[in-house]
């Protein structure tokens, strides 16, 4: 049983208190694809809190059918330990936005590539202190620009960073260590 409280807040004994009448009305309504995409823009990568899964290019497809939302995501790395967290965050966000049912699947094909990262995502990575991967890879050394000073006088200290998708670099210009996202490109 719901009780009306101050400021139109509704609560039932033992339920989620603090929900407003608008929150209860949102649950179970039919969302549009555009609303789902806008909601997904709010879901941040659990390891890089300034970048959304949309900006990382992880969202491959969104389908809405009879109020049920189906979302297909591309993992940045198949062995990423954060996939369960990402799935839970997506399900929670879309349900809170009003979907009656949410299904999230991770696809292996097409594979995610680093060129899927949006310009906004690349800028947010830099602001977070992570160098984005190069747009174009050419044979030879991997040139990485320092996210702090913009210098290209950088060296890789360790191919293996704190996560599977990042490496550790050092900037000879500003003397700062930093992480860089590994480029993942499909050779043609």
From TrEMBL:
<dbReference type="InterPro" id="IPR034904">
    <property type="entry name" value="FSCA_dom_sf"/>
</dbReference>
<dbReference type="Pfam" id="PF01883">
    <property type="entry name" value="FeS_assembly_P"/>
</dbReference>
<feature type="region of interest" description="Disordered">
    <location>
        <begin position="1"/>
        <end position="22"/>
    </location>
</feature>
<dbReference type="InterPro" id="IPR052339">
    <property type="entry name" value="Fe-S_Maturation_MIP18"/>
</dbReference>
<feature type="domain" description="MIP18 family-like">
    <location>
        <begin position="33"/>
        <end position="105"/>
    </location>
</feature>
<dbReference type="InterPro" id="IPR011883">
    <property type="entry name" value="PaaD-like"/>
</dbReference>
<dbReference type="Pfam" id="PF23451">
    <property type="entry name" value="Zn_ribbon_PaaD"/>
</dbReference>
<dbReference type="InterPro" id="IPR056572">
    <property type="entry name" value="Zn_ribbon_PaaD"/>
</dbReference>
<protein>
    <submittedName>
        <fullName>Phenylacetate-CoA oxygenase, PaaJ subunit</fullName>
    </submittedName>
</protein>
<feature type="domain" description="PaaD zinc beta ribbon">
    <location>
        <begin position="132"/>
        <end position="182"/>
    </location>
</feature>
<dbReference type="InterPro" id="IPR002744">
    <property type="entry name" value="MIP18-like"/>
</dbReference>
């Amino acid at each position: 049983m719901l009780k009306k409280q101050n400021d139109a807040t509704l609560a039932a004994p033992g339920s989620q208190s603090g929900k407003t009448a608008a929150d209860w009305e949102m649950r179970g309504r039919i969302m549009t694809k555009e609303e789902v995409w806008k909601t997904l823009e709010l879901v941040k990568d659990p390891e890089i809190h300034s970048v959304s899964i949309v900006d990382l290019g992880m969202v491959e497809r969104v389908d809405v059918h009879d109020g049920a939302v189906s979302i297909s995501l591309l993992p940045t790395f198949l062995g990423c330990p954060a996939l369960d967290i990402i799935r839970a965050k997506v399900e929670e966000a879309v349900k809170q936005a009003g979907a009656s049912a949410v299904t999230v699947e991770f696809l292996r094909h097409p594979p995610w590539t680093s060129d899927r990262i949006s310009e906004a995502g690349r800028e947010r990575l830099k602001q977070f202190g992570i160098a984005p991967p190069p747009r174009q890879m050419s044979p030879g050394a991997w040139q990485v620009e320092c996210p702090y000073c913009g210098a290209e006088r950088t060296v890789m200290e360790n191919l293996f960073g704190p996560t599977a998708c990042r490496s550790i670099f050092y900037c000879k210009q500003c003397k700062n260590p930093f992480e860089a996202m590994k480029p993942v490109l499909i050779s043609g």
